[in-house]
Structures are given as C-alpha cells and as structure tokens.
Design goal:
The chain is α+β, with helices and mostly antiparallel strands. It has one domain: Porin (Beta Barrel). The protein has helices at residues 4-23, 25-31, 176-180; strands at 39-47, 59-67, 76-84, 89-96, 99-102, 105-117, 128-139, 145-154, 165-175.
Length: 182
C-alpha cells in the first residue's frame, strides 16, 4: 500500500508537529501568528529540478494558489494549479502551516493531494499524486511575500511506477485585499 519512505516522512511530520504543539503557550501564539488575509500566490520554477532527478525530464513550470486566511486550528487550507512547458497539469488542495521564524521571515510547510495529467512530460505513475514541501519567504510591510519553495510530488506507492518529482519555485504571495481593495 504505502511505501516505507512515505511512512518515514509521515512519522517525521507527526513528530515535528507534536513537538510544535508541545511548545504551547505564549511561544506557540508568537510562532503561529494568526492572520485573516486570504492570499493569492503566483509561482514559476523548474519541474524535475534535478535534485535526484533526470535532467532530460526538466520542464519550466508556472502556477497559482489561493490560500485562505481562515484557519482550522493552526493550519490554513489552500488550492492550486500548476502547468509545465511539456503540457503537464497538476491541480491540488491541501493544508499549510505559516510559521514566523523571526520578524518578516516565514517558514511554510505544506501537504496536498491532487490530480495529475502528464501531457508530454514525465509519467508519475498515477493520476492521484501527493505533494509535500516547504517555503521560506520574506514578508514586506504591505504583507506581500517573496520566497522559494521546494516540493516533492509522488503517488506514495499506490502504483508500481512511482518516480516522483522534485520541484523548485520562486513564489510571490499577495493579500487578496491588496488586489481587490477589500
């Protein structure tokens, strides 16, 4: 069913999550600063970045995400779509965690599940693909952010073919209220 690597990643994620929850109190309030802004994220990058991948599979990539300011405990829901220069498309939805490292520096791990169509690009082995990743971004005074995201997408072993892909993105995130004057 699920491969050992997937279970190991899940165990690490749960361990880190439980450790963060245990920190509790004033520390967690400062660490997980709440915001009510919805955000639009525009992104461009490299699909099959070469970190453990085959350079012949590289493709330019672009996409967008909508991140809700409303939260479920400390996580925020989001949806997105990515496309590649080889015709691949990945639509997904998931949860992210906005962690304030220091003033204006944010660490944002995320997990999503979605549907993948390869187009003329890489065969990831299944239509259902899981994405895990993290983003490091700088927040400007107007609450916009500029950052870098690394992500891994794979089918978590639900198919015999599971090459996965590592992607690197330059991301620009802007509060929706700044775009539409809410």
């Amino acid at each position: 069913m699920f491969g050992r690597r997937c279970l190991a990643k899940l165990a690490i994620g749960l361990t880190v999550g439980l450790g963060l929850m245990a920190s509790g109190g004033a520390q967690s309030e400062q660490l997980f600063r709440e915001h009510s802004n919805d955000y639009l994220t525009l992104q461009g990058g490299v699909w099959e970045s070469g970190l453990g991948g085959n350079r012949e599979r590289h493709a330019a990539a672009f996409g967008a995400e909508y991140r809700w300011g409303a939260h479920l405990w400390i996580v925020h829901p989001f949806v997105g779509i990515n496309g590649t220069s080889k015709g691949g498309v990945y639509g997904y939805g998931g949860l992210l965690l906005d962690i304030s490292l220091i003033d204006r520096l944010w660490f944002t791990p995320s997990f999503a599940v979605g549907g993948f169509s390869r187009g003329g690009g890489s065969d990831l082995g299944h239509v259902i693909e899981f994405r895990s990743g993290f983003e490091l971004s700088y927040e400007f005074e107007n609450k916009s952010r500029l950052g870098v995201r690394y992500e891994h997408i794979s089918n978590a072993g639900i198919s015999d073919t599971n090459p996965g892909t590592e992607n690197i993105w330059l991301v620009f995130t802007v509060p929706v209220s700044k775009l539409f004057g809410k």
